[in-house]
Amino acid sequence: MAAPWSALFSAIPWSDVIAHAPTVAKGAKKLWQKVGKRPAADDAPADVPATPAGASPEARLAALEARLAESGLRQQESAELLAALAAQNADLVRAVDELQRRTRLLGVLLGLALLIGAGALAVTLLR
C-alpha cells in the first residue's frame, strides 16, 4: 500500500533542499542561458566567425575546431551541473533513509512505552 503524500513530503529534509536551492538555481540558470543562446544547427556560434563556403580548408578546419572546443565546454558545464544534482539527490536519499530509520526506532520506543504504561495501569487497577 502506498504511503500518503503528506508522510512522504514530511520526510524530506527541507532545510537541505533549501540550502542547496541557490546552487541548483544558479546552475540551471547558467545552463538555460547557454541553451537559449545556442544557435540553430546550421548557424555558427556567436563567438566563432562563420566561414564562407569558398574558404580555404585551413580556415574551415579552424572554425570547426573552435566549434568543437565550445561544444566540449558546454558539455563539461552540463556534466558538472548533472554531477551536482546527482550529489544532492544522493544526499536526499541518505537523509530519507536516516529519517526512516529514526521513525522505526521511535515506533519501537513508542510501543515499549505503551506496553510499560499499560502494565503500570493494570498494576494500579488491580491493587
What features would you describe in this structure?
It is a single chain. This protein is an all-alpha fold and 127 residues long. The protein has helices at residues 5-10, 14-36, 57-126. Helix 2 (14-36) packs antiparallel against helix 3 (57-126). The chain is rod-shaped and about 105 Å long.
Query: How would a textbook summarize the main sheet?
Result: none
Number of helices in the DSSP assignment: 3
Main structural class: mainly alpha
Low-confidence stretches: none
Question: Which sequence of SSEs, written as H and E, runs from N to C?
Answer: HHH
End-to-end C-alpha gap:
44 Å
Mean pLDDT: 80
Supply Rg. Answer: 29 Å
Approximate shape: rod-shaped
What fraction, in percent, of the residue positions are helical? over 70%
How many beta strands in the DSSP annotation? 0
As a percent range, the share of strand residues is: under 5%
Key descriptive features of the protein:
single chain, 127 residues, mainly alpha, 3 helices, 78% helix, rod-shaped
Quick overview of this protein structure:
The protein is mainly alpha-helical and 127 residues long. Helix content is 78%, strand content 0%. It has helices at 5-10, 14-36, 57-126.
List the helices and strands and how they pair.
Layout: H1 5-10, H2 14-36, H3 57-126
Helix pairs in contact: 2-3
